[in-house]
Fold this protein.
Amino acid sequence: MFSSAVKCLWICPVIRQRNMSTSSLAGKVAIVTASTDGIGLAAAQALGKKGAHVVVSSRRQANVDRAVALLQRQNIQVTGTTCNVGKAEDRERLIETLQKYGGIDILVSNAAVNPFFGNTLDSTEEVWDKILSINVKASFLLTKLVVPHMEKIGGGSIVFVSSIAGYQPMPALGPYSVSKTALLGLTRVLAPELASSNIRVNCVAPGIIKTRFSSALWQNEDIMDDFKKQLSIKRAGDPEEIGGVIAFLCSKEASYITGETITVTGGMSGRL
Ligand SMILES: NC(=O)c1ccc[n+]([C@@H]2O[C@H](COP(=O)([O-])OP(=O)(O)OC[C@H]3O[C@@H](n4cnc5c(N)ncnc54)[C@H](O)[C@@H]3O)[C@@H](O)[C@H]2O)c1
């Protein structure tokens, strides 16, 4: 799965070091969860274009293979593996596989689910367990797994993908919105705890971005007309407009930023 050139880059600290000086993220290893499509794929692309070796993952092998081929065509160093972030054995396998190759510098926790639309009081325990387990708990548990590997190489950067709904709940998306608020809290909790290990923890809160996840919103003209009234930039965002911000947060240029959430919404204001 790993090409010999990539193995050499990870195993040989001298080459790691030398590459770090040529481009902002050269020589770094970045894990992005749910990165075969949408914002995750755009984050992997942006990190890869800055020189990082990216590890793309999602639940289905076919999607992983497609994303790996796409990124390779763009001359991005990439490895792919399946990972259901809700499964402890998958999370551990992902990290164990990687740590053999010399360290993990960046974690972007992007995977999320939303199995429920409606009045929050109609949501079930099962809905809450699923949403909190994937959107929040898995983000924390992955962080717990990567931190020792980041500490071993002297630091790292973690980015959680929240949502503007974490600040202002979206109608009919109560449990999902609460899970995204929890990520704002997780960012604030972990940043001071990990600062002494030289690990920065930040978050992005996208507005409406054109992905499959939100297609029910941006493909509906009436809903979008309503949203546009609250937007300064009168359109939905593109995944690349989030990927670039994530890559910035992981770069040296953001070395004094931790515990922050950057909202990327086209200037959204008022109630959603
Ligand atoms: N698109 C938007 O408008 C928008 C707005 C705000 C926040 N977000 C957030 O951005 C992130 C990415 O969403 P997206 O819009 O790119 O949509 P997307 O559908 O491309 O991404 C969500 C991904 O999570 C994956 N996923 C779900 N459960 C998983 C699991 N157990 N293990 C691994 N992967 C799993 C899905 O397969 C999917 O690929 C999510 O956290 C989402 O909440 C999106």
In short: The domain at 4-264 is CATH 3.40.50.720 (Rossmann fold).
